[in-house]
Structure prediction request, 436 residues.
Amino acid sequence: MKPIKVGLLGIGTVGAGTFNVLKRNQEEIKRRAGRGIEIAMVADLNIARARELTNNECEVVSDANLIVNHPDIDIVIELIGGYGIAKDLVMKAIANGKHVVTANKALLAMHGTEIFKAAQEKGVIVAFEAAVAGGIPIIKALREGLTANRIEWIAGIINGTTNFILSEMRDKGLDFDTVLKEAQRLGYAEADPTFDIEGIDAAHKVTLMAAIAFGIPVQFDKAYVEGITKLEATDIRYADQLGYRIKLLGIARRTSHGIELRAHPTLIPAKRLIANVEGAMNAVLVQGDAVGATLYYGKGAGAEPTASAVIADLVDITRLATADPEHRVPHLAFQPNAMADTPILPMSEITTSYYLRIRVADKLGVLAGVTRILADATISIDAMLQKEPAEGETQTDIIILTHQTQEKNVDAAIVKIEALPTVVGNVARIRLEALS
Prediction:
């Protein structure tokens, strides 16, 4: 049987890794796929570099349209990134009856519903394992391995840059700006790290996982997104003293009223396995009704870890290419005509616990005023830490951990607390998840 012909759009870090791993492990991959898989064409604006990376073993072009329109190309791998030209090329490939593999989480989070609909109508596959958590096969686990389960919630460390920064802040007691510069120097953070540090990348990924877990359309525009730029080393230190770690989590939870979809800094009990994921590593915790909690851990980025996921998708498509489209695993795990219209909850309606740091004047009655406001808002205190002021200081910190309550209750209480004459500045608020 003749090999599957693949066209690669973009041969940057992940593209080069994909080419190399596919070549190195070609015999093993052929044994698993049932036929050969070969990259026949590569499109990249830097033709000289592309020819060097491919050792002139395939055709190299500068115009990606030559690949998506080529009659002999069976599968297109999109590794360009972004929403613009990448979307146009993916839609053209689908219109031409070609299967697509992509690592572009931003594209799918923004336009996934349109792309999957077009693929369904054309009877082709859009595979995206590499779009979430690099080499960790979390998409396959959600779509197939956990298919017997009613997924209750997902919580993931799904951005290596922010996890590296938070680990360094905790271990070395450094502030955010200092660690960010170090992360950029080491190559963990981009020159423009906005997507990472503002939580956007994590929100893209949890949006895709939520769609697969709950059988809902891709709805990034309804996700709550908060980054780590405002986190202070003080809060990381206090969290540690209370037995917690702070991580940027992507969270999707099914409730009786709708779906929680959010990405933000979160306190996690230090005894949880996921709380001890350090550096640039990723981990995703999934709670199913039958299986309980399952944890998926590994490298969330890098040339060969991500290439591993890209090639796994190539193998899946090669196995399924001749199957009746009606009997393939659906793109978002649920049959397209069985998607739910469960609403995404506004952030004010989510229920969780909270860490509050309140800077106050060192005077009698301050704590009583704060606790009265919390009680009036039906917010129960789980733990509290009141620091003695340093010698010569007239201000101190009160740290409060709450039991579960709705976000709108905390919002209202914070407004009243900040209005107290004994409270200095703004209240620092970080959400807390027990993940039990």
